[in-house]
Each structure stands twice: as structure tokens, then as C-alpha cells.
Design a protein that fits this description.
two-stranded antiparallel sheet; two-stranded antiparallel ribbon; single chain
Length: 514
């Protein structure tokens, strides 16, 4: 059996247990009851009926979406489907132990349980104040983030390929001494060719033709929405999405349809939040206060962000993404049953321990989605498709390690003098850019520019634009950076990038040389 045959079989089995399969089956039964005449034409009549009612398109979108999520690294026996490199698997396992140890130490030091059932009055208070969660300000001064971007980067710098001799690393100027295969500048120019200046872009072009172009993009976008085709939607999005159409096209891009069962599940998650208090709730609350609440762009969405993250921590559907992740969900034991495997439970229920800045994955989405239910499910979708890769150690081409290597490789290729200058003074560029990459630039760019960047992430189904933009920012600040003589000075030059215009900088890097 070939890899494609195996994938087709797995895809078919997954579709058989999906909600879409039941909906298609129900519609097919309905068509059978309506059909009269020649039984031999029954199959064809059902196919035509499903196509006319839009179900054929729904099935095509579902298959296409799953194809995009196809696992890249798989072995014949399936053992290493999550991560093919043994030393990367060991590093991720070691990192997970470190995170869990930090969480358990916090519990012990502060005598706080990992989870507790709320008293009835407290449950009622949570439900009644659901839309004002940011008003209550418990004392969280003794709580600290489990880890942040700096801690994670320090861990990544320890990664070494045991099969690579030290003398083979002499040409590696970067902070990460890893020979990961990453795309060259020429390959990126070919992949992101629609972003070059030869194509007009939403939110960029000025002059007398801007209004005409914007009107044309809106009209074309409405046709794309009517077609309900994910591939067409992604192609359209590569040149940016008009703000008025962003919500509908982002939902179409990921194939997300909010059903009644989704809304029921949302209410069930709210009930779980009101019934049980988790230690990670306090970490989440403090993170929101330290990041989104202190940001002039996002502080008004504090309550929404709280809601989304509290629900997210209880959502066991998130665990499905671990089949494609190098990570393993952390486990704890029921009190009094330490070490007994039968009493081990995933903690938190979604398997994600939040880091400092995690809430910033949610904050920008509040500009796009007004409905809290849609906001929640879209965040869950974009996290399990893309953002989980930004805080796990893996060799995946879209993972944070590969993005970091790509950033260093591109910067050396585009700005060798600048890279060498920064390296010589001990100011490795990755130490500045890593926090941008890990948070997908959320909290660092102006919100409208960030959404234009995320348009491209969704359109290309790739996180590589993040690394390209990081390189472009260094190139843009090149003159000032070459005048610096200390790491502190470099930090000062790169401290504020809120005035950056994303697409022109990406175009400057991706512009094909003639």
C-alpha cells in the first residue's frame, strides 16, 4: 500500500465519523424518499441532488481542508509520525518535563491545587458575571508565568544534532546550530509571487486608482464567498482581504461552519468553567492583565479574551491536534493516586499550558469576530492549524525551530554585513526577532497591519511570512542598526515596530531581481 493509499483510507475513515458524513447521509435519505421512477437512475439522481443543494461543495471543501493538514513526517510503521528526529523528540520531552515541574512547584509553594470544584455561590457568580470577567481583580502577585519566549529560546539554543561534527558548524553564524532544510530566497519569491509589487494589494496601494481597486476587490470577494470554495478563497486572499469581508472569508478559508451543536458545546464549556477552578485560569488571567489589558489596541476586548481562553482550557477537542504535534499533553494524577497510571488525567483538559503572551493569539481576532461563539471556534481552528507550532519543538517546516533557522538564513543571505555586525557585538538577531515569531507578531504590529499579515498566513497555509517579515524589518532598520555598538542599543532601535507597514516591507524582500 502506498502512502497515498494509506492516507486515502485514513481520510475515508475520518469522514465516516465526522458530522458532515451524518449530514450527507441524512440529505441522501431525503433525496431517496423524494425520488420516483427508474431505480437504476437512483445513484445519479442522488449525486445530482447533493451537487445542486451545495453538499458536494461542502464535501470537496472538507477533503481539501484535510489534505492541507496532511502529516508531513510519517514512517512506514507510523511510530515516528509525530516527529521523525530522535534528538528533537528527546528535547521536546525534556521541555515538557520542565514546564510541568515548574507548574507543580508553583502548586506546592503556594498550596494551591491544580483544580478544585467551585462552591455553589461561586458558580452562580461566574455565570452572572460572564460578560464582565475582567472586572474582578484577584491578587495574583505571587503567580508567575510558567515560561516565556526568552526561556523557550534558551532551550532551543541547546539543540544539537548528534550526527553532526562540531567542525561542520563553523559556517553557521546564527544562534541555532541546526542544519535544517529551509527555503532559499529564490524559492520564497516563487512561492509568494502574488505578494510582489507587480500585483496590487489590499491596504497598500495609494493614488487615484485605490478606490477603484478596493471596489473591484470587494466585488470579486463577494463572488468568491458565493462560490464557497476553499481553494478559490485562499487564492483570492493572497492579495489581501477587504476588512468588510474578512470575517466571512476567514471562516470560509478554514472551512468553519458554526452549527447548533457547536453552540450547545459552547454552553457546555461555559458550564465546565463555572463548575471547576483550574490553576491555569489564574495564569491566563494574569497573562491577559500583563499583555492585552496593557495594550492600547486590545484592552477593550479583555472580557472576550478571558472568555475564549477559559473555554479553550476545558475543550478536549483541542487534544486532537496532538496527533500532528511533536508535543504530548501533560498529565497529572488524582489526589492520593500519584504514580498510578489508571488515575492519570490530562491537565489542563485541552493539554495546553499557557505561556507568557499566549492571550495575544486571541486579541487580534476580536477585531474580526463580533459573535463570541464564532470568535471561540475560529481561534480554536487557527490555533490547532498553525499557532501550536510556534511553541513546540519540532523539525516540521512550519515549526518555530524551522522558522528561526529560516529567519537567520535569510538575514545572512540578504544582509550579511548587518548580520555579522550584530553577531560581533553579541546581539544575535534571533534574540530580538524570536518573540515576534513566537507570538506571530501579535502585540508588536498595529492591528490593521497584523490582520493583513494573518491574511497571508491563512491564504498560503504557511507561517513562513512571519520569518520573511522579521528579516524585512531588520533590513528596513539597517542604517540605524549598523550604528549601534551594544545589545541595549540594538534593542532600543527595534523596540517599537508599530509604525511598520507590513506589505511594502514583504514586497521589498520578495521583489524579484532583474
Amino acid at each position: 500500500m502506498t502512502d497515498m493509499d494509506d492516507f486515502t483510507l485514513r481520510l475515508t475513515n475520518e469522514l465516516r465519523v465526522s458530522p458532515l458524513y451524518n449530514e450527507l447521509k441524512s440529505k441522501a435519505k431525503e433525496l431517496v424518499c423524494r425520488t420516483s421512477g427508474d431505480v437504476s437512475q437512483l445513484k445519479m439522481n442522488i449525486h445530482e441532488g447533493l451537487a445542486k443543494s451545495g453538499w458536494k461543495r461542502s464535501l470537496q471543501n472538507e477533503v481539501y481542508g484535510r489534505l492541507l493538514q496532511r502529516v508531513d513526517a510519517a514512517s512506514q510503521n507510523g511510530v515516528h509520525i509525530k516527529e521523525p528526529l530522535a534528538y528533537i523528540r528527546r528535547a521536546q520531552a525534556s521541555w515538557e518535563k520542565r514546564i510541568l515541574k515548574s507548574l507543580n512547584s508553583m502548586c506546592t509553594e503556594m498550596s494551591v491545587p491544580l483544580a478544585r470544584k467551585r462552591p455553589i455561590p461561586e458558580q452562580k457568580e461566574i455565570r452572572s458575571n460572564w460578560n464582565e470577567l475582567g472586572v474582578d481583580e484577584p491578587d495574583l502577585s505571587s503567580f508567575r508565568p510558567v515560561y516565556g519566549p526568552k526561556d523557550f529560546l534558551d532551550m532551543l539554543t541547546l539543540l544539537k544534532n548528534p550526527n553532526l561534527a562540531s567542525e561542520q558548524l563553523c559556517n553557521f553564524w546564527g544562534l541555532l546550530q541546526l542544519p535544517f532544510p529551509v527555503k532559499s530566497l529564490q524559492q520564497l519569491r516563487q512561492e509568494f509571487c502574488e505578494m510582489t509589487p507587480r500585483w496590487s494589494q489590499v491596504g497598500v496601494d495609494g493614488g487615484s486608482h485605490t478606490d477603484i481597486f478596493d471596489a473591484e476587490r470587494v466585488g470579486l470577494g463577494q463572488k468568491v464567498m458565493a462560490a464557497d470554495n476553499i481553494a478559490l478563497c485562499q487564492q483570492y486572499s493572497r492579495r489581501g482581504i477587504p476588512p468588510s469581508l474578512r470575517m466571512q472569508l476567514w471562516l470560509q478559508n478554514v472551512g468553519l461552519r458554526i452549527t447548533d451543536s457547536d453552540r450547545l458545546r459552547y454552553e457546555q464549556l461555559k458550564m465546565h468553567v463555572s463548575k471547576h477552578d483550574l490553576l491555569v485560569d489564574k495564569l491566563t488571567y494574569k497573562d491577559v492583565k500583563l499583555t492585552a489589558t496593557n495594550d492600547d489596541q486590545y484592552f477593550v476586548f479583555e472580557d472576550f479574551i478571558h472568555q475564549v481562553l477559559l473555554l479553550f482550557s476545558r475543550d478536549t477537542e483541542v487534544l486532537r491536534h496532538f496527533a500532528r504535534s511533536s508535543a504530548t499533553p501533560p498529565k497529572s494524577y488524582i489526589r492520593g493516586m500519584l504514580g498510578a497510571s489508571d488515575y492519570a488525567v490530562v491537565y489542563p483538559p485541552n493539554g495546553i499550558i499557557p505561556f507568557h503572551g499566549f492571550s495575544m493569539y486571541v486579541a487580534p481576532l476580536c477585531f474580526v469576530f463580533e459573535d463570541p461563539v464564532t470568535l471561540y471556534y475560529f481561534f480554536r481552528e487557527i490555533y490547532t492549524r498553525h499557532f501550536f507550532r510556534l511553541h513546540t519543538i519540532s523539525s516540521h517546516s512550519q515549526g518555530i525551530v524551522s522558522l528561526s533557522v529560516l529567519f537567520e538564513s535569510l538575514l545572512q543571505a540578504c544582509q550579511p554585513q548587518l548580520f555579522y555586525h550584530l553577531r560581533q557585538m553579541g546581539a544575535q538577531p534571533l534574540r530580538i526577532a524570536f518573540k515576534w515569531l513566537m507570538r506571530a507578531f501579535s502585540g508588536y504590529l498595529a492591528s490593521d497591519q497584523l490582520l493583513l499579515l494573518w491574511d497571508r498566513v491563512l491564504a498560503y497555509n504557511s507561517l513562513e511570512p512571519l520569518a520573511v517579515l522579521a528579516v524585512a524589518i531588520f533590513a528596513f532598520r539597517r542604517v540605524n542598526l549598523l550604528e549601534t555598538s551594544s545589545y541595549a542599543a540594538v534593542e532600543a532601535v527595534m523596540a517599537d515596530i508599530t509604525t511598520i507597514r507590513v506589505i511594502p516591507l514583504l514586497q521589498a524582500i520578495l521583489l524579484t531581481e532583474h
